[in-house]
From TrEMBL:
Gene it is expressed from: argC
SUPFAM superfamilies, A to Z: Glyceraldehyde-3-phosphate dehydrogenase-like, C-terminal domain, NAD(P)-binding Rossmann-fold domains
Protein name: N-acetyl-gamma-glutamyl-phosphate reductase
Main location, first listed in the record: cytoplasm
Cellular compartments per GO CC: cytoplasm
Family, similarity comment: Belongs to the NAGSA dehydrogenase family. Type 2 subfamily.
Pathway: Amino-acid biosynthesis; L-arginine biosynthesis; N(2)-acetyl-L-ornithine from L-glutamate: step 3/4
Keywords: Amino-acid biosynthesis, Arginine biosynthesis, Cytoplasm, NADP, Oxidoreductase
Length: 309
């Protein structure tokens, strides 16, 4: 049986390069690519997409939508790493650990939308707690996250590693209009009924994310505390790969969270911190924005889909 043909559309971008590096030595698939002179040729792109078994789209949103529209071969399956289809009802959301059945849904899907890096952390923390009824779906949720500058793509990498790197800011909060494109994705796939407030930031390090969500226990049902929240996360992820829940004992010993702690891996670490006396809890996620937050998730989704070919 011939190896499946995998086409990475946009293999020169930050995510596409990472995916290519992960797949290029594999013997169970065959990578195909556009030659440099044809990368901006819509006709050649359409020919390549329609000739492959699975295409991974690492493109800006509009270009990804255009690429999808060019698919005429009904056998072609797609993984879209852009945000163009993450809330689309006809696309399967590619966060395999989101629920017990999600990996099976991805394996059998024709169209899979890779999660955003920030939403991976937010949904990973919130969805199990909302599904279990430990958090009200209309909780006034505030989410803050700091990512390495590679989360900004080539622009961020060039600003911090190019000739003018000395002028790059050490830290910058952005999305101040509170309309970041990841907000609908977080709301829909976590299960919130009200729009969360999301404040992202970039730091002067290449990759890695710390995402935090503060909770006031007085706004939750009586009897819900950090221990119950932690137990719910622990149970949900007990049999799942790539997500680890730090013990409460370890969390109590923490004095800081390093966004780079899991760089180079496809893992995500979830943490529950508390001030029991004040009735406050902090949920946190640490992961590599280029690993579990992008390329790692895409390769995991590819492997699930290949298992069903």
């Amino acid at each position: 049986m011939a190896s499946p043909l995998v086409f990475i559309d946009g293999d020169q971008g930050t995510t596409g390069l990472q995916i290519h590096q992960r797949l290029r030595e594999r013997s169970d698939l065959q990578l195909i690519a556009l030659s440099p002179e044809h990368r901006k040729d819509p006709q050649r792109r359409a020919e390549m997409i329609n000739a492959c078994d699975i295409a991974i789209l690492c493109l800006p949103d509009q270009a990804a939508s255009d690429a999808v529209a060019s698919v005429e071969n009904p056998a072609v399956r797609l993984i879209d790493a852009s945000s163009a289809h993450r809330t689309h009802p006809d696309w399967t959301y590619g966060f395999a650990q989101m629920s017990v059945e999600q990996a099976k849904r991805i394996a059998g899907a024709r169209r899979v939308s890779n999660p955003g890096c920030y939403p991976t952390g937010a949904i990973g923390l919130l969805r199990p707690l909302l599904e279990a009824g430990l958090l009200p779906r209309d909780y006034p949720m505030s989410i803050h996250a700091v990512s390495g500058y590679s989360g900004q793509g080539r622009v961020g990498v060039q600003a911090h590693e190019g000739e003018s790197a000395s002028q790059a800011p050490a830290f910058q909060v952005y999305g101040l209009g509170l309309a970041h494109k990841h907000v609908p994705e977080i709301q829909q796939h976590s299960g919130l009924t009200e729009r969360p407030l999301f404040v992202p930031a970039y730091g002067a390090f290449r990759q890695g994310i710390v995402l935090t969500i503060p909770l006031q226990l007085r706004l939750l049902a009586p009897g819900i505390d950090a221990g119950r929240l932690h137990a719910c996360l622990l149970q949900h992820y007990a049999e799942m790969e790539h997500v680890q829940v730090m013990s409460m004992h370890e969390a109590r010993q923490l004095t800081s969270l390093d966004p780079q702690a899991l760089n180079g891996t496809d893992s995500m670490r979830l943490v529950v911190c508390e001030n029991a006396e004040a009735g406050q809890v902090l949920l946190a996620a640490v992961f590599d924005n280029l690993g579990k937050g992008a390329a790692g998730a895409a390769v995991q989704n590819l492997d699930l889909m290949l298992a069903r070919t």
